[in-house]
Amino acid sequence: MKSLLRFLGLEDRADQEELRETETIRKITQELDQLPAEEARFIASFSYILGRVAHADLDISKVETESMERIVKEQTGLPLKQAVIIVQMAKSQNRLFGGTENYLVTKEFNRIATPEQKLALLNCLFAVSSSDEHISVREDTEIRQISRELLLEHRDFIQARSQYREYLGVLKKPEDEGLR
Questions:
Q1: Which of 152, 124, 151 is nearest to 52 (CA)?
Q2: What is the CB neighbour count within 10 angstroms for residue 12?
Q3: Which domains does the chain have, with CATH numbers?
Q4: What are the Cα distances from residue 106, in Å, to 50, 76, 113?
């Protein structure tokens, strides 16, 4: 019976979800194997979520990548060389598995992060998306979705967003917007 369920793709979905949940984080944490496991999981999920926002418009620019590297270095205390590697891995995982991994990785971050760390991530998400001096509607929407997945209050989202209002594409005039 179990093999029939497996064949039909109905085998214990919780087990399958748990395997997917850890795959992205596991790949990134391999670079961080000298750190305690929980710290490595935090850094992996934090970095991945930054990449999630950068990739929301289906393009991770050079300036977004550099912003992510700087943020990972500053927020985690990792050396720049290691931050660069982590960001590259997070970007790669995002491009490959973003559609299926986004919620799972954010759910894991929500589980392990403190409320202060969640708010810091929210601010970092806006910093990455505004690094090219433009926050697209897709990036803004993705950040809002992440804040919901992190169970943050709407006022927290608005407070963080208001610090970057000059870059919000939704507030720009069409002639200022160009073809973005």
A1: 124
A2: 11
A3: 15-177 (1.10.3680.10)
A4: 10, 17, 10
